[in-house]
Amino acid sequence: MKRIFTLVALLWIGSTAFSQTRLGFKGGFTLANMRGTASQNGNMDTESGDPVAGFHLGMILDQPAGRNFHIRPELLIVSKGSTFDVDPSVNSRLKFRPYYVEVPVNFVWYKTYSRSRTSIFLGGGPALSVGIGGKADVEGLKTDVFNEGLLKRFDLGLGMIFGVDLTNGLTFNFSTNTGLLNQYDEPRMGNPYNLKMYHSSFNLSIGYLLQ
After folding, report:
1. What does pTM read for this prediction?
2. Are 102 and 76 in contact (CB under 8 A)?
3. CATH number of the domain where residue 147 is located
4. Of 163-167, 180-184, 191-195, minimum mean pLDDT range
């Protein structure tokens, strides 16, 4: 009999937690950049490009998973990229402007204040990115950015997020994503300088969680 009541209690708790799941939408400003590393004669050189302003837009899922612990996966379209000087003497520049479908999965500490019912959250987690389009541009010559000698289509990053949920459903957050995988798609002729490239981005978002 005790086992039956224990099972009923566990199922009730699980169904209650699931019923508290909230779906929402978010969008906002993205500041993206890329970092390149290369080596020659044993010397390592690192260069960051000029950041580019962009956007992100998509969906949020907020799932309570314990006391003061939530899981917040997202499904976003994100613009990224950077601009590098190819030959400063003639103002020649290489521009990367890729677009990704990105799936961050954030594991967050979640605290609701009883008086105001306002909640704050802080955490992070992995982020999978899949390229869906975009251009690389050198002196007006444009081509698909996901191409041999340019960028790979898949990336895995590590993100952090801090935000506030209001009682009216509005949510505000700041997040980062640092790419962990080399994005340079080596050409068939090889990569003599061991060139590697990595993404990073900062996001300011506003959203709405359905009640």
Report:
1. 0.86
2. yes
3. 2.40.160
4. 191-195
